[in-house]
Amino acid sequence: MDFYGRWREAKLPGTWNQKVSRLIGVIFVFGVVGCGSLGPGRVPGDNFNYNEAIAQSTREQMLLNLLRLRYLEPPLFLKVSSVLTQYTYEGDVGVAGTRGFSAAPDTITGGANLGYAERPTVTYLPISGQEFAQRMLSPVPIELFFSAAQAGWPVDLLMEIGLQRIGDVENMSFGAVPAPGDMDRANQFRKDLEKLKRFQRLIRRLMELADEEAIEVSRGKGEDSATRYFVFDVNASGEIRGRIQELKRELGLDPDRNVFRITGLYTRRQSDELTVQSRSVMAMMSFLGRGTKIPEVHQKEGLVIPMGVVTSAGVAPPPIPFRIQSQKEEPAGAYVAVRFQDHWFYIDRTDLKSKLIMLFLTVLFDLRAPEVEAAAPALTLPTGR
Q: Which of residues 102, 126, 150 is at a domain's end?
């Protein structure tokens, strides 16, 4: 941005020397005041503006990649590595005058020019490569979920989007779909929906027993401090004890045991172990993409594989706690919105669950993605002129 100020043709009262002195004073004040307000005064505003722009861009990129996975397109991630801003200030002043004789008046002219330019340079680094693929496709360590729960994140949401299996209860698949002609696709999605509902019921039972302080997750001691244990209360009342036994049967646990070591194994699980299998970041994104409201025209054109509940109005998204709305016109006041496939997709600013999940997914992605210094090549774009 540039601005230009100019003042000339002064006609000041007084003697010749007084006119010159006053004009120089005015020009000096103009230059000092103008330059003094452009240096440090730019820092707080620019810092806030760049911060907000990067945060908004991060939300939009995550939403766009969720849509790409839903539409069977490869995701692409860019990381803002650096923002460099150059400020340039230029100015000059000038005074000229003529001394009149006889009837000719004295004339004084003056000019002041002040120029300011800002030239930001933003550096983007594509996040890709073998390390990135391994991190995105490998299951997230269970420890991260425990840490997030201890930090105050809703445990039920973490389990529903981040876990694939607890004991004998499996969550909905996260994107694997049968090839056309291999099997009845509607039957496959019906089974997936049944898995999701059963997993959601299991989470509710776990939360209810946790509220009753009948179950807890504890850490081992000494050399076993890295191991987590799922513990049932041995002194629970009769009604709670009955619900504990029901939960053990559903999870496929030994009814006579009350302490189970948490493991990722399923087929070779021991009688004193409880299977807890997590998803990868990419699997979570594919799962959450199922919450997209696909425009009817896209369904008719076959741009996506139907992954929801068939109704008279079309295919409705499955009942997962995440919603991506869609419409033809740009939404007003959305939390985040992107234009994709000639439609606008967005998360409503009042949809607190979806906003919370988007926040958790973004934080989890940053934790799992490799350092941007390891990614190459760098793409630097000067955004000024």
A: 126
**Spatial distance between the Cα atoms of 351 and 323, rounded to a whole number of angstroms:** 8
Region of residue 175 (left: phi > 0; alpha: psi -120 to 50; beta: else)? left
Give the residues across from 170 on adjacent strands: 165
Higher pLDDT, 183 or 235: 235
Give 181's pLDDT tier (boundaries 50, 70, 90).
Answer: low
DSSP-derived 3-state class of residue 371 = coil
| Domain membership flag for residue 4 | no
List the end-to-end C-alpha distance of the chain, in Å, as a whole number.
Answer: 9
Backbone angles phi, psi at 32, to 5 degrees: -65, -45
More confident residue, 15 or 65: 65
Domain span including residue 242: 139-370
Integer-rounded Cα radius of gyration of the chain: 32
Taken in order 355, 305, 61, 160, the sign of the CA dihedral is positive
> For residue 131, what is the enclosing H or E element?
helix 130-137
